[in-house]
Design a protein that fits this description.
The chain is mainly beta. The chain is built from 4 helices and 37 strands. It has a 7-stranded mixed beta sheet with strand order 17-16-13-19-24-21-22, with no helix packed on it. It has a 6-stranded mixed beta sheet with strand order 1-18-26-25-20-23, with no helix packed on it. Strands 2, 3, 4, 6, 9 and 10 form a 6-stranded mixed beta sheet that branches. It binds CU-O-CU linkage (C2O) and copper (II) ion (2 copies).
Length: 507
């Protein structure tokens, strides 16, 4: 009896020991994974490379006034780090593309040539234009083909951008380098009351996070990183550890989050204030003084920063409060911090005129004009419990009408919501008036878990019952998984056309 009892005790002791060891291993492993999952480059970046500013795209003007651009999608290589040759894609270049620039009222045409071995598209993010020119997944351009969209610029001065949109492959096409800026000016050209000399006191800042595996981009998602691929360092305009020389008291930075998944919270290393003069679709009614601004993938902000002679200050991305729990916050990159761009002021600075007190605000739709309300619920990979189908139209809207869209994130992870063709007004965020950074024209809005935004959108057409526009989460892996839907704009009383089959455009 005593012998058996001691044997039982011994077995229990061994089992207990094994259990403890496994618990320690798992716990330790989790702690290690948790601790290894956050990234900070703050204070650790030696800013060695001068920022390169994407060139302004050449254009020709035809007899009828049409401004014609040429974009060639091609593969190439780039040495982001000395001696390490990375395979890349770009427009007219090895990585990223030139800045297109046009004025309101101008007719533009872009000859898009696909020199890749994969079919792709080029979408004009933030642009109001006919659906067939939008460059979404229905306007695929086959390798070797040229697609030539044409439209009239009919919206306020703004910082827009362009990037591919092939269904299921947007993330990889953008991450390899296919992205560029598209700057719109007013009828009269750049606003002379604001810093406006391109590359001098008006600087494009295309921010992307990146991770390398040997010489190549590391495309693996981290453990628990349901948000998508997060990098461990940032680059601006395709330059790692960049600095920019500043020669003016006031400098405009056109911030574009062209990352596929990362959410930034931009501010400065000395916590100085800056002035917000532009959101996604143009100027807010008046300049807003802010200390930081959050941008999720696809969002833009134009900010003006004041410099003192001889100083250095770093554009930094600080912790983001993405509304997540302890665990989710870490694995969605919310705890990460980056030193993004060092700004080096000259010993003497050119004086800049004071910023105007009011701005030529982009016109915004209002809910009082709204004739229809719709709800969109975001969950992982789906909108309203459906994943994207190329042959299903999810919403039919009437040309000239205003609608109210309520978008709710019913998921445990962050998402955002982008609508093609329009610039919307954010009417409410969680039942309250939007904060200053969200009061201007927007085409992309961030949604933390359980967040709700109410948007007013006006669909000015033209009607095309046969060609849809997209709305989707702009975390590109989510978009690729099917977190996207389609709407068509029709004339009053008109029905949506037959579901579009997969179209290829060419020649
Ligand atoms: Cu920036 Cu539908 O995209
Ligand atoms: Cu878009
Ligand atoms: Cu998402």
């Amino acid at each position: 009896m005593a012998v058996r009892r001691s044997r039982v005790r011994r077995i229990l002791l061994i089992l207990g020991g094994v259990f403890l060891a496994v618990a320690l291993l798992v716990g330790g492993g989790m702690t290690w994974i948790y601790a290894a999952a956050d990234v900070s480059t703050v204070g650790r970046v030696e800013f060695r490379q001068e920022l390169s500013v994407p060139p302004l795209a050449d254009s020709t003007v035809e007899a009828d006034g049409t401004r014609v651009f040429q974009l060639d999608m091609r593969s190439g290589t780039k040495e982001f780090r000395p001696g390490q040759v990375t395979d890349t894609w770009g427009f007219n270049d090895d990585y990223l593309g030139p800045t297109l620039r046009a004025r309101r009222g101008e007719q533009v045409r872009v000859r898009v040539n696909n020199g890749l071995t994969d079919a792709s598209t080029v979408h004009w993010h933030g642009m109001h234009l006919p659906a067939a020119m939008d460059g979404g997944p229905h306007q695929m351009v086959r390798p070797g083909d040229t697609w030539t969209p044409q439209w009239k610029i009919d919206q306020a001065a703004a910082t827009l951008w362009y990037h591919p949109h092939p269904h299921g492959a947007t993330e990889s096409h953008v991450r390899r380098g296919l992205a560029g800026m598209f700057i719109l000016d007013d009828e009269t050209g750049p606003n002379r009351d604001l810093p406006h000399t391109y590359g001098i006191d008006d600087v494009p800042v295309i921010v992307q996070d990146v991770k390398f595996k040997g010489a190549q981009f590391d495309t693996g998602r981290g453990l628990f990183a349901d948000i998508g691929v997060l990098g461990d360092r940032t680059m601006v305009n395709g330059v790692l550890a960049p600095y920019q020389n500043v020669g003016d008291e006031l400098v405009r930075l056109r911030l574009l989050n062209a990352s596929t998944a990362r959410i930034y919270n931009f501010g400065f290393s000395d916590h100085r204030d800056f002035t917000l003069i532009g959101t996604d679709g143009g100027a807010p009614a008046r300049p807003e003084t802010l200390g930081n601004i959050q941008l999720s993938p696809g969002e833009r902000a134009e900010i003006v920063v004041r410099f003192q002679p001889g100083e250095r200050v770093t554009l930094r991305s600080d912790r983001v409060d993405v509304g997540l729990d302890f665990f989710g916050q870490r694995f969605s990159g919310g705890d990460d911090r980056f030193d993004v761009l060092e700004l080096r002021a000259a010993q003497t600075l050119r004086p800049s005129p004071a910023l105007p007190a009011v701005l030529p605000a982009a016109a915004l739709p209002t809910v009082t004009d709204s004739v229809r309300q719709r709800d969109f619920t975001l969950t992982f990979g789906q909108i309203n419990n459906r994943s994207m189908a190329m042959d299903r139209i999810d919403a039919t809207v009437t040309r000239g009408s205003t609608e109210t869209w309520t978008v709710r994130n019913a998921d445990g992870m962050p998402h955002n919501f982008h609508v093609h063709d329009v610039q919307f007004a954010i009417v409410e965020v969680d039942g309250h008036a939007p904060p200053p950074a969200l009061r201007g024209a927007k085409d992309t809005v961030f949604l933390p878990p359980n967040g709700t935004v109410t948007l007013a959108l006006r669909f000015d057409g033209p009607a095309d019952p046969n060609t849809p526009y997209m709305f989707h989460c702009h975390l590109l892996w989510h978009e690729d998984l099917g977190m996207m839907g389609q709407f068509v704009v029709v004339e009053p009383g008109q029905q949506a056309g037959p579901p579009p089959a997969h179209q290829h455009s060419g020649h």
